[in-house]
What does this fold into?
Amino acid sequence: MLSKKKVILVTGVAGFVGSHLARALLLSNHSYVVIGIDNMNNYYDVSLKEARLQILYEVNTVSSEIRFFFERADLADRQTVERIVVKYAPDIVVNLAAQAGIRYSIVNPDVYIQSNIIGFYNLLEVCRHSYDKGRKGIEHLIFASSSSVYGLNMKVPYSTDDKTDRPVSLYAATKKADELLAHVYSKLYGIPTTGLRLFTVYGPMGRPDMAYFSFTNKMVKGEKIQIFNNGDMYRDFTYIDDIIVGILDVLDKGPVVNYDKIKFNIYNIGGHHPEKLSYFVEVLEKSLIEAHIINKPTVKEFLPMQPGDVYQTYADIDEMVRAFNFHPQVGLEEGLRRFVEWYKEYYIN
It folds into this structure.
């Protein structure tokens, strides 16, 4: 187990996964100090990001000492990132900051290069120089990748041994580039590194641009929802709590030496159970009706596959099971029910 008073730097801390991770760290049995970085951009409603931060501040007040510190900063600003790392000297860095979204990357590519490539490169450089002048430096860099890197790969379930050289979106390409950069820096400079390919994360306080969230917003307004490829697509939905357990397992165990005898590994974190899009909509609709948020099924518009989409995602999690005994616990029905409960409390009650 990790010793007490580990300083954990979490980038993207006001984001969906980042805020849940920071909360779990602050509530854990370890006396973690959490340093959060976020640029608070307006890709989606900033008030939701502020609400996530407020929860972290409230959790922080439960402790007898301050263990959460927030820095509003952009990873693309190298000098600011260097200042923060020098100031707090983190033991572990968890990079969850990224410009997300498949379709948005098609119309707004610049922000993906700035955030996902330049920002991550800056973080790698800062981690590299954390060892300068004999300093202890970063013990472990954990970073979020994405199931999107599998692109046109037709073999399922997706294994980390599969080729990932045919992305179908700029977002996916930037995430694959991050994996390659991280491997180089781990090999050349000895940065212990673990990459996690996350599969369709959902749950309370999630991103409004995700399908389950945007569908809910439209259903509540009585608007029709657009279902691509006529609902014939499959996604390996992963509930947020399972994602956090996986990240904590990796953080707790520490970096693992791989077959190249360097401390660099990539793992899938997914639900390991693809669900058909049409069934997903059916479950979400049923949950909203049972919660008395809507009173009838919504109108659906069936459309062809969109650019950047893939037919199916399906995580092979055998490596996560072997290395960390990871087993997802929350199924789609329960996960959507929990999301709907939160949505009702946050937006309606």
The first strand starts at residue 7 and ends at 11.
